[in-house]
Design brief:
binds pyridoxal-5'-phosphate; 2 domains; 12 strands; Aspartate Aminotransferase, domain 2; single chain; alpha/beta
């Protein structure tokens, strides 16, 4: 029986506790599990690095929401990415990634994997000819992020998967910005999906986490082994908080998207703003593609300021409801200056962000309050 997304978000991987009937499965704050005789594990649980029931709940849930057969939960998004890349690469391997992927992803590959013997090339993912030229035979991983951060570019997951597969590359999609409610990359042909569950899945800015999901048994086996062997796992308390957050993902994403659309429309044409980057606007170059491959346009948008870097800095320091902070995807609205905050680590690389860009993570507060806050701050 296939249920609606909202129903699965609340119930997948979860059954009331058989001992007490507790509707919410308990948090298994334990490092180890008693054995019924040597090697007599109950339901396979032996030691929490290898597996913990609360983590299993989260892993089952995220895999279900992405339509995957295997899920793995990690201590952070980057911990998951690191474990995945170790599983896919060996020295001599080659990674091609989008030229505005998450700064930390670029740093991980460029400063940890490149010194280990991996070659890295960045490419404009929305330009399929450029991708075809970059994805040469011998490319091990094609790393895709759409919508991208912070320029909100949309790239064609199905076409990219085809280009990657033509040379035998594994196609990975970082689905953090869209969340599984708005986009399911595996259904479009990707091999692996990664999430920073810190963002929309957790949804309340109170816990760090990451996930890797796939329906490829061979990749799953390697990731599962490395999750155990390396140990960058999600702790039980963190896993539980993330499961709780996911229960409301559908209603939150609907509201994030509606609020972001209203804000984008309110800011288009404002004299202090050069351009609004939001895929829900008809004038956005990726609008039609986003409408095809996503079920909504999400809660992230960026603006370029007519007044350049100074105007951008003044703006982000002048809001009251929007809080000046890194991160995204929580119920509260955040505003950031990527050039010196989230993207400081990529200055001087192909991923450098223009210095007049401001990024908004639109929360689920009353949208009139959010618009009034932005318009007031723009008066400065
Ligand atoms: C935050 C983020 C990450 C990294 O996740 P952490 O949980 O901070 O380690 C990866 N990709 C994207 C798109 C992100 O926004």
């Amino acid at each position: 029986m296939t249920h609606h997304f909202s129903t699965r978000a609340i119930h997948a991987g979860q059954t009331p506790d058989p001992t007490t009937g507790s509707v919410i499965p308990p948090i298994y704050l334990t490092s180890t599990f008693v054995q019924d005789g040597v090697g007599g594990f109950r339901n396979g649980y032996e030691y929490t690095r290898g597996g913990n029931p609360t983590r299993t709940t989260l892993e089952t849930l995220i895999a279900d929401l992405e339509g995957a057969s295997h899920g793995y939960a990690f201590a952070s998004g980057l911990a998951g990415e690191d474990t995945l890349l170790r599983a896919l690469l060996k020295p001599g391997g080659r990674v091609v990634m989008g030229n505005d992927v998450y700064g930390g992803t670029h740093r991980l590959v460029n400063r940890v994997f490149v010194p280990w013997g991996i070659s890295l090339e960045t490419v404009e993912l929305s330009d399929l000819d450029a991708v075809r030229a970059a994805v040469t035979p011998g490319t091990t991983v094609l790393w895709v992020e759409t919508p991208s951060n912070p320029m909100m570019k949309i790239s064609d997951i199905a076409a990219l998967a085809e280009i990657g597969h033509a040379v035998g590359a594994i196609v990975v999609v970082d689905n953090t910005f869209a969340s599984p409610y708005l986009q399911n990359p595996l259904a479009l042909g990707a091999d692996v999906v990664v999430h920073s569950t810190t963002k929309y899945l957790g949804g309340h800015s109170d816990v760090l986490g990451g996930a890797v999901v796939t329906s490829n048994d061979e990749i799953a086996e390697k990731v599962g082994f490395l999750q155990f062997a390396v140990g960058a796992v999600a702790a039980p308390m963190d896993a539980w908080l993330t499961v709780r957050g996911i229960k409301t993902l559908a209603v939150r994403m609907t509201q994030h998207s509606a609020n972001a659309q209203a804000i984008a429309e309110a800011l288009v044409g404002h004299p202090a703003i050069e351009r609004v980057y939001y895929p829900g606007l008809a004038e956005h170059p990726g609008h039609e593609l986003a409408a095809r491959q996503m079920r909504g346009f999400g809660g992230m948008l960026s603006l370029s300021m007519v007044g350049g870097a100074d105007a951008a800095r003044l703006f982000v320091e002048s809001t009251n409801v929007f809080l000046l902070a890194e991160s995204l995807g929580g119920v509260e609205s955040l505003i950031g200056y990527p050039a010196e905050m989230t993207h400081a680590s990529v200055r001087g690389t192909a991923l450098e962000v223009p210095e007049n860009i401001v990024r908004l993570s639109v929360g689920i507060e009353g949208v009139d309050d959010l618009i009034a806050d932005l318009l007031e701050a723009l008066k400065h």
